[in-house]
Design goal:
It contains 4 helices and 12 strands; from the N terminus they run βαββαββββααβββββ. The protein has helices at about 15-25, 80-95, 165-185, 190-195; strands at about 10-15, 35-40, 60-65, 100-105, 110, 115-125, 125-135, 205-210, 215-225, 230-235, 235-240, 245-249. α2 packs across α3.
């Protein structure tokens, strides 16, 4: 029996949609751009493995990402830039819905200065799974955020009727697939990085930077490196951040 053109598995509850999507992909149930949507997750994860609150009515989805090109100008860059590629794809997919979204490096989505979503990418044995969480109808109150949070949470605020999380998932996957294909057809890595930089939160502003195991410092965001790191101007010299957190000043 032929596989349907697109598979979206809906579950009422799971540990994480990423774990469920990976198991189904390894079993041959899910292919590229197929997805798992959960009403709620018991163990949602965000940046640095921090808990992600998974409220019913918000979108909790994980999808199997197709393999990036392994030839042409993207041959050397696609693996390093995959997190930024994912961010760009879904920022562009949200644009036609009326949302101007910024990318908070490396994997958060901001609207009007507030965090409305986050992404997590895991690659294992050649299988890439992208987890995406969007605060569609609810977000944590400011008073419930961690003391060290970089930005407050917010919601997308989609006007009714909008069809619910599953309808939003279908729109994002279909549009995301088109953006992904166009990206590799029309943009070389350098032009892609310029496009992402135009969507980068706090570009040109000073931020407080915390690197794991190192002292924190202040710097100005100036762009992105060819390997996807955040380029900063610190004390008159250029440095590249590959892992850490940033807070606007």
């Amino acid at each position: 029996m032929p596989k349907p053109e697109q598979v979206i598995v809906v579950v009422e509850e799971c540990g994480t949609t990423m774990e469920t999507a990976r198991l189904l992909a390894e079993a041959g149930v899910l292919g590229a751009w197929d997805a798992v949507v959960a009403v709620r997750q018991r163990g949602g994860r965000g940046q640095l493995r921090r808990p992600w609150i998974s409220s019913p009515g918000n979108l909790h989805v994980s999808m199997v990402m197709p393999a990036p090109p392994l030839d042409g100008p993207w041959r050397e860059a696609s693996a390093d830039l995959l997190p930024l590629i994912a961010g760009y794809v879904f920022v562009e997919a949200l644009e036609p819905l009326g949302f101007r979204i910024e990318i908070k490096w490396p994997n958060d989505l901001l609207r009007n200065g507030r965090k409305v979503g986050g992404m997590l990418i895991e690659e294992r044995n050649g299988l890439v799974v992208l987890g995406l969480g969007l605060n569609v109808v609810e977000s944590p109150a400011d008073g419930l955020m961690r003391e060290d949070h970089s930005v407050s949470a917010g919601i997308l605020g989609i006007a009714a009727p909008w069809g619910g999380p599953l309808a939003l998932c279908e729109v994002l996957v279909n549009r995301g697939r088109n953006v992904y294909a166009t990206l590799f057809d029309e943009l070389e890595p350098a032009r892609f990085l310029s496009a992402v930089t135009s969507r980068l939160a706090w570009h040109g502003r000073r931020v407080h930077v915390t690197e794991e195991g190192q002292d924190s410092y202040q710097a100005e965001i100036t762009g992105l490196s060819p390997k996807g790191g955040l380029v900063l101007r610190r004390a008159g010299r250029e440095v590249v951040l590959y892992s850490g957190s940033i807070i606007p000043l």
